[in-house]
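pipeline stage [seq->struct] | target=C3H1-type domain-containing protein | organism=Neobodo designis | residues=316
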Amino acid sequence: MFANALSTVDALSVIDPCNRTGKITIPASFVTVTKGVSDYLKHGGNPPPDVKDLSLCLLYQKGRCNAGSRCNQVHAAPEFVSEIRARASSSKSCCAAHGDVHSSHLDHAKHVAVVKDGSVEVFPLTSFATTPSLETALSRARNGQARVQSSRLCRLHLKGSCKFGRDCKNIHLCPSATPERNAPQFDSAPPALGMAFRSVDITDRCTGPAGTGATAATSTTASAYIAYDCSAATRVDSDAHRLPTGASACDVTPLSVLSIMSEFNSMRGDAEADPLDIMDDDSSGSVGSAIDFGAFVDGLVRCGDVEPMASPQWIA
C-alpha cells in the first residue's frame, strides 16, 4: 500500500521530541514507510495547515511500536537517530552565546528589547536562539533596535522543553539570560498604531462636515463624519481623491473606514504578527502611516445607532 511513498523524496524533515535543536533531516534510505509518512507525502511534502508535521515515533526507537505500517509517525533507523542525537547533545541549543549551532551568525553587538506592559528589558542578541519569529523581528528593526512582545517568548524553551528548536514559531530567549544594565535606550512607548488603539476614547467623538458644527447624530446626510486632521500631510480618501494639505477636517464614509483598515492589514504581511507591533517606519509605499492612522482613529465617531468596533477588533 505504501511501497512507493518514499520514491519521490531524498530525505524527510522530522521533529524529534528528544532533540532540542529543531527538526532533523533523515535520508529516505533510513526511513520505513508508515501511514503517517504516506499521508504527508500525498501533498508533495507541502501539506495543508491541518496536517501535522512529521514526528519521530519514540516507541519504534525503543523497538516497541505495535502499529507497524499503520503508525501515524515516522519509523527511522535507531542507529542513525542515535548518531544525530549524540551530535546535538554535544552543544547547547538555548542561545547563540552558549553555542547553538544555528545561531552563530547573531551579532553580539546588537540588542533586542522585550516589552511587557509598557516596560522594557534589553538583552544582547546572543541571548537568543534563531527562530523564524526572531528573524522577522530583526528584519523589522528600526534604527537597529529590534523589539518583541514578551507574549511571543516561548515558555517551553524557558523551561528547556521546546521540541521544535529553530523551527519554533515563537522566540527563544535563553532561560539564564539577564537584562543588560547599561544597554542602549529603547523607547518604551508602544508603536503609533498601538497607541491609537490603547489610548483613544472614540465613543464621545462626533462631528459633522468641517465648519458646520453639526454632529454626525443630527446630520441629515447619509455619511458618517469623522474629524480628521489633514494638516500634517496630504491624505487620500476612499475615492482616491487627494485632499488639500491644511484642511482641518474631512468626511469619511464607513466604506472608507474599511478601505483604510484593509490597507493597514496589508502592511502587516505576517499573518501571525501582533497587530500592535506595526511600526511607523515608512517601509511600505502606502500613503497612510501608523501615525496618520493614529490621527484617523482619534477622530472616529459614533454615528446614529451604529457604533465603531471596539479595539483591537478593527484589524482582527
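stage status: PASS
auto-comment: The first strand starts at residue 11 and ends at 14. Residues 5-89 form one domain.
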